[in-house]
Design a protein that fits this description.
alpha+beta, Nucleotide Exchange Factor Grpe, Chain A, domain 2, 3-stranded antiparallel beta sheet, 37% helix
């Protein structure tokens, strides 16, 4: 047997043993000392590429697509969300329409009532003058008619403005005269500190915040 057949397997390479002597590789299958066949070296176990994977689970390009598909909403769920959003939008539009309609209705009612009160101003002025002169004494038929008329207007939100002793308010009063505090017939409320109504020539009327006519009054300043 040649020297090349005597090189033991698994020994150092020729490059590693360069300069250290010849290298003998023994490739004989029969051991010369025992005469028994030599056992082949156990090959190194190979580790499968998916050894770290959990049994029953496989990863691949298709898994990413399946995972991504779970995030996509179901067509029925998406349709239900769209219908819900549409219903909410319609409900908000209906609420706005209802509120706007109510405001317009109140405005129209106030405007119509104001037109009626303006047409009745001469009659209301006559009632006021009759009371000032004592012609509408309590218990007389005309006094009862005047009270019913004013009560009816009150049910529609009509309020009378302009009373002796109340502070002057330019939004509901029109001052026709300015009288001295110590003048004849001028009586100021006790403790008055601002311009005060001391005489009412014509009463005023308002409906809510809308002034139909300002009260025409005489005022006086406390001394």
């Amino acid at each position: 047997m040649s020297d090349t057949d005597r090189t033991p397997t698994g020994g150092p390479s020729e490059e590693e043993t360069a300069g250290k002597g010849p290298v003998i590789r023994d490739k004989r299958r029969i051991d010369p000392e025992t005469g028994q066949p030599r056992q082949a070296a156990d090959p190194q176990p190979t580790v499968p590429e998916d050894a770290g994977a959990v049994p029953g689970e496989q990863s691949g390009p298709g898994d990413a697509g399946e995972a991504g598909g779970q995030d996509d909403p179901h067509p029925d769920a998406q349709l239900a969300a769209e219908r819900l959003e549409e219903m909410r939008r319609m409900q908000a539009e209906f609420v706005n329409f209802r509120n706007r309609t109510q405001r317009e209705r109140e405005t129209d009612r106030t405007r119509a009532t104001g037109a009626v009160v303006e047409a009745m101003l001469p009659l209301l002025d006559d009632i006021h003058s009759a009371r000032e002169h004592g012609d509408l004494e309590e218990g007389t038929p005309f006094a009862a008619i005047a009270d019913k008329l004013e009560a009816t207007l009150g049910r529609f939100g009509v309020e009378r403005t302009g009373f002796v002793g109340e502070p002057f308010d330019p939004t509901v009063h029109e001052a026709l005269m300015h009288l001295p505090a110590d003048g004849p017939g001028v009586e100021l409320p006790e403790g008055a500190t601002e311009m005060t109504v001391v005489q009412v020539m014509q009463p005023g009327f308002k409906i809510g915040d809308q002034v139909v006519r300002a009260a025409r009054v005489a005022v006086a300043d406390p001394s």
